[in-house]
Amino acid sequence: MLDKLFNKLSSNKEKNYIEINSTPNKYVILGASAAGVNAAKTLRQLDPKGNITLISKDEKIYSRCMLHHVISEHRSVESINFVDADFMEKNNIKWIKNTEAKSIDTESKIVNLELEKISYDKLLIATGAKSFVPPIKNAKDGNKIYSLRDIEDVIYIKEKIKDSKKVAIIGAGLIGIDILTSLLDKVNLEVSLIYPNEYILDLQLDKYSAKVYESKFIELGAKLYSSLSVNQIVLDDNKNVKGVELGDNSIVECDLLIIATGVRPNTEIVANTNIEDNRGIVINDKCETTVKDIYAAGDVVGKNAIWPLAVKQGIVAAYNMAGVEKIIDDKFTFKNSMNFAGIPTVSLGIVIPPDDTYDVITRCDKDGYKKFVIRDNVITGFIAQGDISYTGSITYLIKHKVEIPNLRDRVFDIGYADFFSMKENGEFEYSI
């Protein structure tokens, strides 16, 4: 599709989007994950002659969403690479790996590395996010305490877990549950999950759908500790972790601890610049930052950290870097799909109503669980667990705030036919 667009735009004599002059455009991208790699790919398709330099602290390209599968040994590091092995060579991209950018000189348009300086015409910051470790006593001082964000974390965890008998996980968001499920089939390993909330995945699920997963995890051998804060990490005389002291002063024993309490954007690179940072680099609909010719995309912008959004932002940034105006026309980020322990679930929109002006309608039968959150004949939230069919249409209805007459009375019966109408010539069309 991009190739067709490129050919079409190239043939437009009235407006060439890439200047035909003596010097090729110089594009620099910081970060080699979803946003950065997709931006590089798109830039090469839009500007075959441009100079593209990609700088990353990683030595390999891999999907961070899949790291837990490497721990469980269902996948290898190579199999979670989301591009071809010769991607850089095939796309004529200069890849400076194992290197972190230290600072940006926005006036001179230079990225400072440890040993060299790289000049740019257009710069994309896609440096992602880092694990957030809360200020728990001994959390940063003990041995065998890890987070899960980079491939190095996987290597350490896989090595240490060989000699472990009891593993504890702090945090029950998506990362924490990914780690939990990757460990449940380990033989002779006791796994405990600790979280301060009433139920797991409380940003994505409601109490009922979360409890379905919790019951299954307990059935598979996990020990769950909910609604409890953490006082401190207990260490032995050699500073090896030996347990987690909870808010009720009880201790969950462990010889390996994984902290999965969220992430924070990697925005250190914009310190001492005019690039606005408000818990993430601030961007507009074109993925432009507050400094001309500098763009940002992915987790570094501090939005809902989901893969599809990072990919979209990377592509949109690349278009605008190449001089082709494009905006993010889909900002719907309240969508999560998961399949833990063989139980598929989709969560859309606002699944916990903020006040009593919303109607909540649920159904639980042999096919699973469904929940609609409705306000003024508009679906604002939806959960499907078990049978997740028709979620594509529900996503459209929520995203576009489609009003459906008498919705409360027929919410479980709406189908594709409800959104067709007939033109004057007898042709059918969508009416939404």
UniProtKB/TrEMBL annotation:
Top-level lineage group: Bacteria
Signal sequence range: none
Record-annotated NADH-rubredoxin oxidoreductase C-terminal domain positions: 336-401
Gene3D superfamilies given in the database record: 3.30.390.30, FAD/NAD(P)-binding domain
Alphabetical keyword list: FAD, Flavoprotein, Oxidoreductase
Domain FAD/NAD(P)-binding: 26-314
InterPro entries in UniProt: FAD-bd_OxRdtase, FAD/NAD-bd_sf, FAD/NAD-binding_dom, FAD/NAD-linked_Rdtase_dimer_sf, Rubredoxin_C
Full protein name: NADH-dependent phenylglyoxylate dehydrogenase subunit epsilon
Gene: padH
Pfam families referenced in this protein's UniProt entry, alphabetically: Pyr_redox_2, Rubredoxin_C
E.C. number: 1.2.1.58
Cofactor(s) annotated in UniProt: FAD
Gene Ontology MF terms: phenylglyoxylate dehydrogenase (acylating) activity
